[in-house]
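Data availability (excerpt). The following record was deposited with the supplementary files.
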Amino acid sequence: MMKWREFFQVVVMSGSLVVMAGCFERPTVLHQDFGRSFTSAKQNQILHPDGEISPDPVTGLDGKSAHHSLKRYRKFFEKPPFASSKTGSNTKK
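Predicted structure:
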């Protein structure tokens, strides 16, 4: 006949094995592809992937033109040229 102490140890050990088995997970297809979508989207936005190793200078807007373009862009959001209205409101004042 099994003593109560031995019985309790067997119950605790089997319970801990069940709990530990619940923590184990096998890799799924989602785990294998995790981050691939983000990496793909980031790589698709890079114009010249080998730009960091290329000795050619960067071409584009000069500093003065870029400054004015950015200033005009920011000013647009201070006061938009269009009037915003509430959705569903057709009454005039």
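Summary of structural features: Residues 48 and 54 are 9 Å apart (CA to CA).
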